[in-house]
Amino acid sequence: MLLLSLRKFIFYLLFVHCSSFLHDWSVLKKTFRLFQQAKLQTSLERAQPNYDIVFKCRSTNNQQVDDETNFDLQLGDLKGFHRLRSHRSVALFLHGWRDEGSKQWVQEMLTTWIHFQPSHYICIVDWGHLSQNDYKAASGSIFEVGLTVAAIVESMEAINPRFSRKNVTIAGFSLGAHAAGFAGSLLNGELEQIIALDPAAPMFTMPTIVAPKYRLDENDAQFVQVLHTSSGTLGTSLKCGHADFYPNGGTVPQPNCQQSSQIPETRNRNPISCSHSTAAVFFKQSMDPIYPFLGTHCDSYTDFVNGLCAHGHLGRFGVHSKQLNHGNFYFITEPEEPYVKPVSIARRRFVTLLRFNKLIS
To answer: Global pTM?
Structure first.
């Protein structure tokens, strides 16, 4: 009898202790969220269109891909806008913290994108003078960047009434993903799509998740696809798009960051920052239609690796996505470039999927 009472007393103490811990953690989370949102709200209220942000754009002659034209778009300067033709789609790329438009990897992204989509205007949004600040200041700058991007798109429509924001794609890496989301929200979610590359976690979903108006959300464009490569560290694990892709589970370290050589684009040997940068590397590689980044729809990565989703439908990540599939998608990559199998191996299943989707759509 005494032993039974002692056990009950111990269970009671454990219950009280756990309840107290959960209560304290709930209060702490609420405090963190209030702090994060207060900081972001202050930045949001102070945000103004920035006339120093330059959109470095490139276009090609469809008949001669090597015939390239470079021009700038900038608020307050109309010269570049008159180069735009309403029948062409526009793609904008927003870099992340401590980056700038002149960085080699950003320029390589521009060159690769225009090579594989020569019918587009491709622009690098250079907000380097803001991204070089400390992280707290840079994270607050996403509203200024997003406001400027939205103003540029609205200027395109005002100068050429036949041009539509529905033909605009914005890709953003890290903080750039949240800036893209804010621009999309200002444009009423009418952008064609947003491609978010490992959206930054600190201040947005870490230590707590802030309200959607401060971060990327699936309502920011007609289609939002997200690539997660360092979930729970520099990048968020939160599903924030219509289609979220988790290569190798989306966690650190990515296979290419475990090799002694590592990917040259990252220029570092830190497995966390390397995995974060891998999102941009995979995005650039995915532009080559020969190497499709195909994910299998599944409830979890554990189910995926255990073969429980072998018959799940496929979704394609990147600029060649048909924007048909929603949900979470998982796939495995190789440690070295090109990271995925060429289309000759993957094509049969993917083509079958596309035909099926056409039948049911």
So the answer is: 0.88
